[in-house]
## 1
Amino acid sequence: MKKLTLIISFIILSISLTGCGYEELNNLSIVTAVAFDKNEDNYELSFLIANAPKAQTSAKEGEAKTTVYTGKGKTIAEASKDIEQIVPKQVYLGHINVVIISEDIGKEGFLKISDWLLRNPQTRKKFYLLQAKDEKAKNILKIVSPLESFPSQSIATLIESNSETKSIATSITYSNFISQILEKGYDPILPSINIKGDVKKGSNEKNLETTEPESYLVLGPLAIYKGDKLEGFATEKESWAINVLNGGAKEVNYNIKYQNENISIETSSLKSKIKIKDINNIEITISGKGDIYNINNKIDIENYKEINKIEKAWSKSLKKDLSKVIKKIQNKWQADIFGFGNLIYKNDPKTWKKIEKDWNFKYFPYLNIKIKTNLKIEATGSLVKTIKEEE
């Protein structure tokens, strides 16, 4: 219950700082996550409430922890009022840390529902935004984890840890996403999230008691947007490549073939630099340092010439993978998620004004993009060599 105590402390501080006066905490329903779905002509708005009187998951002492309330309406505001009519306490939105949107909402256009979040004076606009994939957004709020008290905290922890270590996901806040939509020459991306297993089993308190949960949340590939509309999903490998190109890949484990052997290169310092030659030519330089792992002992990694050959093989393979992803995004989605157009706008506003309306269709798909690399191998760990030295 330590996290709940922190939430309550935050609310007390917020109330005192805003000068709204003290309000009984027992009269508040604290919303920690929100989900947006579409059901035919109606919107479905779902609140994950931290201290509701009845819940889908309860503590062993019988005290409720969370519940999901859903309201329907022709507008989001109407759906919100629908929830307020069934929640026995005053809804408090000041501690939302996760918002999930369904594929239907994404395809219809995020700006249609963003106004409700923007205009609500309680929301802080710094919460994480995620795209539900192959699942209703509200179902994702129901999955409980043995590692976190609240599903919203579980999702936040998942996105933070995965964006740091796997480089497939990336953490995007509401403010980040809106700024990318409104930015000239820039199309946004979102991390996606899905459920592995059965929703009913995952929302049951028994999911907390097993050593191997029957259902759990997983981060999927990046969702590709054009403006505020969802275009589709990249694959996991493509998502990794997109993050490398955007400079958002913090830790990368990359495998290459060398002398018919698999070599694993791990790096935590890949950097991307984009240079605009003109409106038809872009140059991207990827630089970084890596360490070798999982190498066959037949390869002499003490020989600097051998290391140089491995660096060249790494460079060639990485260029090929990144170029393939860029071509797919240019041809299939025509969504400038790399912000090439934005750089043209900043460097040459007059030229951008002439091509802006046709950028995604007439210019972006036909850009000539050259990828350069500056890759160096630093450490050459060898388990076989280490064992032999010990012997």
## 2
Amino acid sequence: MTLHPLAPDPAAWDDFVVAHPRAHILQLSAWGALKAAFGWTPVRVALADEAGALVAGAQMLLRPLPARLGRLAYVPCGPLVDWADAAQVRALLEALDSEARRHGAILLKIEPGLGLDGVDFVRFGLHRSPQTVQPPRTIVLDISGDEETILARMNQGTRRNIRKSTKFEVAIRYGTRDDVPRFNALLAETGARDEFGVHAPDYYQRAYDLFAPAGRAALILGSYGGQDLAGVMVFRLGEGAWYFYGASSDRERQRMASYGVQWEGIRWAKAGGAHWYDLYGVPDAEPDDLEAQFESRSDGLWGVYRFKRGWGGQVVRGAGAWDRVYNPALYALYRLVVRLLRRAE
């Protein structure tokens, strides 16, 4: 089969992503539009067969690197390709190379995602990267079966806290566009308390506008006495759902509003046809180490692991990050700058 590289329009691209067995929300054109509003340039590269049907592709995001080192080309949760078909993989990587070089990239970074154990990325000219963008390790919940079955997979404490959120009269509602500023206020409070960064308020407004009207995201808020106590923004596509953003207040914490909104997020994902729910991000440590250390550590993603571990999911690790280098000298400088920035943090 002869494959032809092309740049598909957003509608054709999204049809391809939705139908692909490795469909991911970060590969939709709406995600490219979100990142375009915050310094990235999205480019979609695909391969088509003789009939014009898309068979493989990737949404690639480009942005300038620090210290005028050129540009980074980055593929989140992709490419969408049959990794068992070496000819298809090589053809797509060559097409990505051409487009990345045309935009002045000194490297292409890909994070292929979950479920690719056994793929030899080195054979395709990729080098393992110590710098990841997405969390390499996560917890994925099985949300098949009825609600009682899903609840039975959780630990006792999580089930009890879900019940408490109801008993203590936490009102759960689906937020509208007008509620995004209220969610931003919760995010600001959470970030200050737990010492982690959050995006600018416009980021979450844009995310809501791009995904919620299409039924691919939900903003869920929990309140008591007119005060918002917790919120989540959850995304879904096909059989998958992702918990990307969450926030909570210090007020009325005994009401367990965080558990109420998370449970509603799972229910929303399941109602839309999702079979699994990705809690998106835990420390990159082996399961035994996670269990041995979670009570004594609160740095980085350790602070959220205690909460996420109780939902009954499986700790899984994706393929990590892989780089395809175009300019070795500038790439070495880029690696040095990344290390210096990490030390500064």
